[in-house]
Structures are given as structure tokens and as C-alpha cells.
Write a structure and sequence with these properties.
The protein is an alpha+beta fold and about 260 residues long. The chain has eight helices and eight strands; from the N terminus they run H-E-H-E-E-H-H-H-E-E-H-E-E-E-H-H.
């Protein structure tokens, strides 16, 4: 019967539209599993649904709901994620030639130390990222010189990470031979709030439950109604069916405001 066929086509259209509305999009790709787990944990703390998918050998991508893509980007930016890939000492000390000059060895050694210290400082709670600059004197310098170090720490202002200055100085001093405590400078800079409520797309009702974004509801409802109306119009049974859905759409949207 034509009516049964129209109903089946309408039902199929609804399923296709709802499936499209619920599909995920790629947020970040080419991260290792440790970073992927950290990113998912941060997103879930902000009520953002996320999942990880393996894309290669040791490589993962993070997917989120399309309606939460803006909030997810903002959240990860505030958290300093994904973190910069730091080179290990083994990577830095790969020799490409037979002989290295003393200057090259000193530069590589200082860079390896700075990368290692940055990785350690980044593990401190509340620290988003850091930079460590080390100046090592020449071994055969005529005048005696001592090494020095400068540390820049970007931290979440909602934490007390900026109170770790003495700890960071001591850690850097103990990691570099000949470096004294007074030759280390540490600067802390806040990067912004961990969670900007103005950027959150969800709305809380009086009961405290989180409601989905209003604009997302509108688009989903309109997509379903348009799909049903299109199927009804193509069936040839009537503009009445299409007009009735238009009236329903106006009522539903008015209630969501």
C-alpha cells in the first residue's frame, strides 16, 4: 500500500538524519596513547564526550560530537593540550658525522638538559607548559664562568602552581653541574581560566541537570521535519502531510525557547 511505503520511507529518513546528527568528528590526530588518554580525561571533566581511535602504530586520534567541537578546542587550549613533543637525550645525541666539535657537543648537551627539565616541570600539577634555557660556559675558557638557567612556566591560575618556584629552582640546580641556586631565574605566567563558562554550549536548568545546546536541538528537529516533509512531498499524497509537519515544527521550536 502507498501509505505503508511512505511510512517506511519516512522512518528510514528519520534514522539517516539522526545518525548524521550523532556522528563524531576528528578533533586531534597523530598523538600517542598517553596524550590521547590525558586529552580524553580533560574533555570528560568538562562534560565533553570524546573517544580515541587507533590510526597507526602507536598513533591515535580523538573524536568528539560536532556540536561540542568549539568547546573542546577551547578547553584543550586552556589546558595546553596536546603537549609539545619533546626530544629525548638519545634522539638529540644521534651523531650524523664521525667527529663533533666541542661547540656542537656543548649545544646538544644543553638542549638535551633543557628538554629533559621541561618534561619534568610539565608534570607538576597546574603547569600547562614550560621553557628552560640553559647557558653553559666553555670548558677551556680563560676566565672562570658559571652556568645559568632561565625557566618560564605557563600555569593555570585556578591552581597554586606558581608557588613551586623554590622546588623548580632546586630541581634545575641539582640537574646541572656547577649551577648555583642564585643563577636560576623562574618566571610564572597565567594562561587563563581552566574552564570558561561563557564558552560552554550547554545550559543548566533549575534542577541542576545539564541540557543540550538550544541551537543544536533546533537544527536536529528541523532536519528531521524537513526529511519527513520531503518524503511526503515526493510521495504525491499530499501537501496536507507536509503542512501538518510545518505546524508541528513551529510548536516544538517555540517550546524550546
Amino acid at each position: 500500500m502507498p501509505g505503508g511505503r511512505i511510512f517506511r520511507l519516512s522512518f528510514l529518513a528519520v534514522l539517516l538524519v539522526l545518525a548524521a546528527c550523532g556522528s563524531s568528528v576528528s578533533l586531534i590526530s597523530d598523538v600517542n596513547e598517553e596524550q590521547a588518554n590525558t586529552i580524553i580525561e580533560v574533555l570528560q571533566q568538562h562534560d565533553i564526550k570524546a573517544a580515541k581511535e587507533k590510526t597507526g602504530s602507536g598513533s591515535f586520534q580523538i573524536t568528539v560530537d560536532p556540536q561540542q567541537i568549539g568547546e573542546a578546542i577551547h578547553t584543550l587550549s586552556m589546558a595546553g593540550l596536546p603537549r609539545e613533543r619533546l626530544q629525548s637525550i638519545g634522539d638529540i645525541f644521534k651523531k650524523e658525522g664521525l667527529i663533533s666539535s666541542p661547540f656542537e657537543e656543548r649545544v646538544r648537551y644543553a638542549y638535551a638538559l633543557s628538554q629533559s627539565l621541561q618534561d619534568t616541570i610539565n608534570q607538576i600539577s597546574g603547569v600547562i607548559s614550560s621553557r628552560v634555557h640553559i647557558a653553559l660556559p666553555e670548558a677551556r675558557s680563560v676566565t672562570p664562568q658559571t652556568p645559568s638557567a632561565s625557566v618560564l612556566v605557563l600555569y593555570n591560575p585556578q591552581t597554586d602552581a606558581n608557588r613551586n618556584g623554590p622546588t623548580i629552582r632546586k630541581m634545575v640546580s641539582n640537574s646541572i653541574p656547577g649551577l648555583t641556586y642564585d643563577r636560576i631565574s623562574v618566571a610564572f605566567m597565567p594562561t587563563g581560566p581552566e574552564k570558561d563558562t561563557d564558552a560552554v554550549n550547554s545550559q543548566d536548568d533549575e534542577s541542576g541537570l545539564s541540557a543540550p545546546p538550544a541551537h543544536g536541538i533546533h537544527w536536529t528537529i528541523l532536519a528531521v521535519i524537513l526529511a519527513l516533509s520531503a518524503v511526503a512531498a515526493l510521495s504525491g499524497i499530499g501537501w496536507k502531510f507536509s503542512n501538518s509537519f510545518r505546524r508541528i515544527s513551529s510548536r516544538v521550536i517555540s517550546r524550546t525557547h
